[in-house]
Amino acid sequence: HPLTPPHAAMSAANASLAKRIATIKPVPATVQLLEKQLTNGESAVRESGLTSITKVRPPAEPLTDLIAKLIEHENWFVRRSAAAAITKCCELDDAAQIAIHKVAGKRLTHKDSDVRKCVARALIAIIKAASGDDPPPTAGLCIKRRVFGKRLEAAKKVADAMNGEDDVKGAASDDDAVSTASGDSMFGTAAASTFSPQLGELALQEIVACLDEQNPRVRQLAIESLNQLGKLAEPYGPRLAEALADPDVSVRNAAMYSFESLGVYANGGVDVVAKLLRHKEELIRESAKRAIHVIKRHSGQVVVNAVVAQLGEIQKMQKKMSKDRSRPHLTSSPSGKEARADKGGHELADVKTSQRTVLTCLCELGPLIVPHAKVLAEYLEDPDISIRAAVVRTLIAGGAEVSSSLKHIKKFLEHKDTNVRRAATNVLRGLAPLNPAVVATVGKVLHEDGGENSGELMRQRVMALQILGAAGKNAKKFLGDITRELENS
Q: Quick one: CA dihedral 466, 471, 472, 476, positive or negative?
């Protein structure tokens, strides 16, 4: 007989339920057991679960779905175990790329900072393991846990065993002491050289892609992750240098630390750092200068070469601007200060500001500028007094060895422009107390006879006396000549 309306409704509901049940993917028993192990409060049980991943080899999709769920778990130790599980998945051919792209890479932009750090740390461990290195330290991504009671005592013991190398607050927990000698390493990760370098490259590209993210915290994390990769981060030196111009101060600071932590491996970005000395924003120019002081600790001559090269770039810009002004349809800016953009899209400061910043930076580099003293001396005849003054300070800061370019500097004492002669005199006055060779060269003029050019000789003697007057003890040899000149004046 025909169904009544209530029976029809019940039949439809049952059909809908059956359809939903059919769409539910069955979870294998091995994955269910793994979930219980990885969420267990005992670190030994969690480690056992991590070890079982490569032994049991659960199906790829249920396995990665579980890890994706656990990486967002409310308990931090579960998230850490899930991060280690991501690396173990890379030992399974069918789960490796899913773990890297869909589990870890997708969560690098997660709203929870701890989730971001955990997956970043997993990717770093994959990159390092693929290249034959050990997993990264906890402190590298600022992953610190507050511990109490027995765990605090355990953390103190770990710190004491490490001779105080680790902060007690950063000695995360007894988890880290389960199977490693270090109290600051990520336990349970895949061992070094357990999978191909191609997987390491895939993980690295996930991190590099985050350098372009809108969220500054994500960009910061990407830089901090690259900072732990040593030589592997070498191709990304220019990208790290570009981050010095980032609008977010935390990102700039992370990029600044790159040149300290990576050392010579970040030298690919030195030219970009030097270009930022010409940036329109003073804050960015100062960031570039601080980065240059970091770089000079390990690559002094490399960085000074890059900075000096900017003077040549500024000259090219000056010539181009002169050509533009000579064209009738082009006019200069009302303020007289024309700003341009470099190839990286950064708006540049005006020429004089750029020159002063570069020269000031070279002055701070001190003796490293010696090989470039001749190039710098050419700026003594710049028409701008502030540029001449900056060059004078820079050459003096170069120290006694600048005197190797003494002949080149001395020629400006004969320049037709009084201001240029004065600038050259000031340079030699600054160098005279540092190197007796300056005094010996300049003092010779006091022994020359007058003749027809007595006026010119008198001018030279006055300059010589000015230089000898600043020479201190180095002028002792010429005291008699100085006295005679003073008596005859």
A: negative
Task: Encode pLDDT of 454-475 as tens digits.
Answer: 677 778 778 888 888 888 888 8
What pLDDT is stored for residue 222 in this prediction?
Answer: 96
pTM for the model: 0.78
For 65, the enclosing helix (H) or strand (E) is helix 60-70
Q: What is the 3-state secondary structure (H, E, C) of 170-235?
A: HCCCHHHHCCCCCCCECCCCCCCCCCCHHHHHHHHHHHHHHHHCCCHHHHHHHHHHHCCCHHHHHH
What's the mean pLDDT in 265-287?
Answer: 94
Distances (CA, A) of 314 to 210, 311, 343, 348, 393: 33, 5, 14, 10, 20
Q: What is the mean pLDDT of the chain?
A: 82
Q: How many CB atoms lie within 10 A of CB 213?
A: 15
Which residue, among 158, 118, 111, 110, has the nearest Cα to 138 in the 3D structure?
Answer: 118
Number of Cβ atoms within 10 Å of the Cβ of 19: 9
Cβ within 8 Å of residue 58, ≥6 positions away: 28, 30, 31, 34
Report which secondary-structure segment, H or E, holds 251.
helix 249-261
The CA distances from residue 152 to 145, 156, 311, 369, in Å, are: 10, 6, 56, 52
Q: What's phi and psi for 291, nearest 5 deg?
A: -65, -40
User: What's the confidence (pLDDT) of residue 439?
Assistant: 82
126 is written with which tokens?
């994959």
Q: Which residue has the tokens 């778990």?
A: 73
Measured CA to CA, the distance from residue 220 to residue 22 in angstroms comes to: 44
Tokens at residue 60, please?
């790829």
Q: Are 395 and 427 in contact (CB under 8 A)?
A: yes
Distance of CA 17 to the CA centre of its chain: 57
Residue 188 and residue 46 in contact, taking contact as beta carbons nearer than 8 Å? yes
Write out pLDDT tens, residues 123-142: 999 999 888 887 766 555 55
